[in-house]
Task: inverse folding
């Protein structure tokens, strides 16, 4: 985490907030929760933010503002894509508006970067931007820097929602009703088929600008059906929307094995009638033999 990131669709991660809580099925195998309660559990930033359980560490709902990380993007002079709060949710219900204001104020001072925000709390995000956040941030910038040149929506802030199945597509409706320069969705982990016809087609002249899709990784990962991935890809192509296929995750569908190196062996791997568990790295990023790395035009 920091000025480089292994996440395929970004270049850096910035984590001024630590902590979260489980609100939907997509959270159950959260890599950030596993990391905060595992390798990072003794670090001051994440200590005490998870509780042990039979399935591993679980967020306990406590949130922590990490002051040392707040100005990190200001020190990065080279332009880059930055994933905001990869270890938390910027619009978590427990976060005071003042914390969010401080983070947005930093983003406004870094026009050289693209900030990629993802949330499962789409209603809180909409309420935040519908409120008086802009006036508060202007006042903060004047106090901190002596000036405030702020446009709304911020052109370098890309707002997104995380959606794992059709039941959670309502988050996209909230996103489309939120002022943003770029609106995007991350379908990761994708746990079922999703119909994006309405958000890709547009609601009141506003539509999704970018779709990212990925399967689940980690010890207890759930498989992603190749038909779900193909459907999303085809919906994006029909709508002319950029599509980014991030990963298959832990499980590779059997119908994707034909695109792989025929000399590879999977002896000893766990398998089902439809999938082989080869691990994230071996499963790779090819969907029907193609790498999809499309980004929105900004």
Result:
């Amino acid at each position: 985490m920091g000025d480089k990131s292994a996440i395929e669709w970004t270049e850096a991660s910035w984590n001024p907030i630590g902590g979260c809580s489980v609100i939907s099925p997509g959270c159950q195998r959260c890599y950030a929760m596993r990391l905060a309660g595992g390798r990072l559990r003794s670090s001051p930033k994440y200590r005490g933010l998870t509780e042990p359980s039979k399935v591993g560490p679980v967020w306990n709902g406590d949130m922590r503002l990490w002051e040392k990380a707040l100005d990190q993007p200001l020190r990065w002079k080279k332009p880059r894509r930055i994933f905001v709060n990869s270890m938390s949710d910027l619009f978590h219900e427990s976060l005071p508006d003042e914390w969010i204001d401080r983070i947005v104020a930093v983003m406004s001072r870094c026009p050289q970067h693209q900030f990629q925000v993802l949330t499962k709390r789409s209603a809180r995000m909409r309420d935040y931007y519908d409120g008086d956040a802009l006036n508060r941030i202007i006042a903060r910038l004047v106090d901190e820097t002596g000036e405030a040149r702020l446009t709304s929506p911020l052109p370098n802030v890309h707002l997104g929602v995380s959606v794992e199945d059709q039941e959670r597509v309502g988050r996209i409706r909230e996103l489309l009703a939120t002022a943003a320069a770029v609106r995007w969705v991350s379908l990761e982990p994708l746990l079922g088929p999703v119909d994006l016809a309405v958000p890709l087609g547009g609601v009141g002249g506003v539509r999704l600008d970018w779709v990212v899709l990925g399967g689940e990784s980690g010890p207890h990962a759930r498989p992603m059906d190749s038909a779900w991935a193909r459907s999303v890809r085809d919906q994006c192509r029909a709508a002319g929307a950029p599509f980014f296929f991030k990963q298959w995750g832990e499980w590779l569908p059997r119908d994707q094995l034909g695109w792989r190196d025929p000399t590879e062996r999977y002896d000893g791997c766990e398998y089902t009638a439809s999938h082989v568990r080869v691990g994230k790295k071996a499963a790779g990023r090819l969907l029907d033999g193609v790498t999809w790395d499309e980004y929105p035009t900004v």
About this structure: The first strand starts at residue 12 and ends at 14. Residues 173 and 199 are 7 Å apart (CA to CA). The chain has a mean pLDDT of 94. The longest helix spans residues 226-239.
